[in-house]
Amino acid sequence: MRDFLEFEKPLKELADRIDKLTKSEPDKPAVQRLIRILKTRLARMEHDLYSSLTPWQRTQLARHPQRPSIVRYVNLLFRDFIELHGDRTFGDDHAIVGGFASFEGRTVCVIGHEKGQGVKDRIRRNFGMPHPEGYRKALRLMKLAEKFHRPVITFIDTPGAYPGVGAEERGQAEAIAKNLFSMATLRVPIVAIITGEGGSGGALALGVADRVLMLEHAIYSVISPEGCAAILWNDASKAPEAAAALKMTSEELLRLGIVDEVIPEPLGGAHRNHEAMAAQLAKTLSAHLSALEAQPIDNLLADRYEKYRRMAAVATPHTSSPECLPPS
Questions:
Q1: What DSSP state is assigned to residue 4?
Q2: Average per-residue pLDDT in the chain?
Q3: CA 241, CA 81: separation in Å to the nearest integer?
Q4: Using an 8 Å Cβ cutoff, are 272 and 15 in contact?
Q5: Whole-angstrom distance, CA of residue 56 vs CA of residue 53
Q6: What's the predicted TM-score (pTM) here?
Q7: Mean pLDDT of 270-293
């Protein structure tokens, strides 16, 4: 059963009409002709709608409850997945799923956020908002991958790191910072894939990679549109305006050099066809992994350093070339 979002209601009304006609008198030539006309109209409406989405509409698609998560991608993309648990310090965080699997004949380390499916699972997964032990588990697996020379693939889909008292007491900021520091020099190829919602440091803690890929309707931002609107205008209802100002969509981030490639989604979003989305993702992932594995590791680390160094560059009034800001 497909869930329609608010801006998709015109599509739902037409789809419901087609469904009703199909069930009523489908053998009548006049009804068959009307169904064909309506299906053509529906296809045209879908094309027009999804080719001109606003940033806020993309945000809604990125958060769609039926959007495939890491557990789904693991089942579709990888073989022989063995999940590993715990950070060996405090406990196991179900908001982060990680382990080792086979991808096209190579063993890889797979780590990602998991929001959960259904109410009970979402509560158990804390709606994809990790605690410090989740990030420490992720780092433990990355270090294990480095020890055995296995590429790391991360799947990013989180509103952000959990901001609760317990998480802060156990060192949330330190856990995220340590991941950033360690991933910058991890001596194996790293590919990060933003599959849904990439929120703040909670996303970046799995996002320091040689290649950052982003699904077409995913978002990636320092703050949620609602949080930004609450800070700037003291009004969370201005989230659509904030979404436009944040430059958080895949096309904008590709243009800014934050992500390396945008992966097209099936018409209407990845939740419409999990298998087709996984097939497209597998093709892109395979190409990037092969290119990264062909490089000497020292060259890979130098390129990784330059990649993120360039993101901190600005154009000064005295030169046309970007320069790093001088220390204050």
A1: P
A2: 91
A3: 42
A4: no
A5: 8
A6: 0.89
A7: 96
| Of the candidates 285, 87, 311, 259, the residue with the CA atom closest to the CA atom of residue 189 | 285
Residue pair 119/112 in contact (Cβ under 8 Å)? The answer is no
Q: Residue 174: what residue type?
A: E
Locate 131 and state its tokens.
Answer: 């605690």
Task: Quickly tell me which residue has 């996984």 as its tokens.
Answer: 278
* 178 within 8 A of 134, measured Cβ to Cβ: no
Contact 214, 173 (CB under 8 A): no
- Classify residue 23 as exposed, middle or buried by CB count within 10 Å of its CB (0-12, 13-18, 19+): exposed
DSSP state of 272: G
User: For position 284, what pLDDT does the model report?
Assistant: 96
Residue 191: how many CA atoms within 13 Å on its side-chain side?
23
Handedness of CA 286, 99, 141, 178 (dihedral sign): positive
Q: With bands split at pLDDT 50, 70 and 90, how would you rate the model's confidence at 317? A: low
> DSSP assignment, residue 249?
B
**Cα angle 296, 207, 316; round to 5:** 85
**Helix ranges, 157-296 (H):** 165-169, 172-184, 200-204, 225-233, 239-245, 250-256, 274-293
Residues 159, 292: Cα–Cα separation, whole Å: 29
Confidence of residue 327 (pLDDT cuts 50, 70, 90): very low
CA distance 146 to 301: 13
Q: CATH classification of 59-314, choosing from 3.30.1330.30, 3.90.226.10, 3.40.50.150, 2.60.40.10? A: 3.90.226.10
Residues 6+ apart with CB under 8 A from 40: none
What is the SS3 assignment for 156? strand
Over the stretch 3-52, which tens digit does the pLDDT of each residue have? 788 898 989 889 888 888 888 776 778 878 888 898 899 899 999 999 89
pLDDT at 326 over 50: no
Contact 284, 250 (CB under 8 A): no
The rounded distance, in Å, linking the Cα atoms of 282 and 243 is 29
